């Protein structure tokens, strides 16, 4: 079990402890950060990639203006639409699959 709260962030106050002793500041959105880390917020789009398809995932995430993650962490993030790069599946229910016979074909499908 992971503990995600303000008291368990490693490196807090260590960005520049001499010139910025209160970094990141009193207005830092801690609540939003922890909700995102715990997967409590749902995003509109998420690009999920398999090993070797990072380039296509990067371009598609740039096009959709969304985050991208490796398939091993796909269940930890809630999204209305998940775009699976290099992974076979059937489109539907907010899941979109882009998998060709090789990386070039996969890239063509994803872009």
TrEMBL record:
<dbReference type="InterPro" id="IPR036505">
    <property type="entry name" value="Amidase/PGRP_sf"/>
</dbReference>
<dbReference type="GO" id="GO:0008745">
    <property type="term" value="F:N-acetylmuramoyl-L-alanine amidase activity"/>
</dbReference>
<dbReference type="GO" id="GO:0009253">
    <property type="term" value="P:peptidoglycan catabolic process"/>
</dbReference>
<protein>
    <submittedName>
        <fullName>Uncharacterized protein</fullName>
    </submittedName>
</protein>
């Amino acid at each position: 079990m992971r503990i995600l709260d303000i008291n368990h962030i490693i490196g807090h106050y260590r960005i520049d402890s001499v010139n910025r002793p209160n970094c990141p500041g009193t207005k830092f959105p801690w609540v939003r950060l922890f909700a995102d880390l715990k997967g409590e917020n749902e995003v509109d789009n998420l690009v999920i990639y398999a090993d070797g398809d990072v380039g296509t995932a990067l371009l598609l995430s740039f096009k959709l203006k969304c985050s991208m993650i490796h398939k091993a962490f796909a269940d930890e993030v809630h999204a209305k639409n998940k775009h699976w790069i290099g992974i076979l599946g059937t489109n539907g229910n907010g899941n979109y699959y882009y998998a060709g016979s090789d990386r070039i074909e996969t890239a063509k499908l994803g872009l």
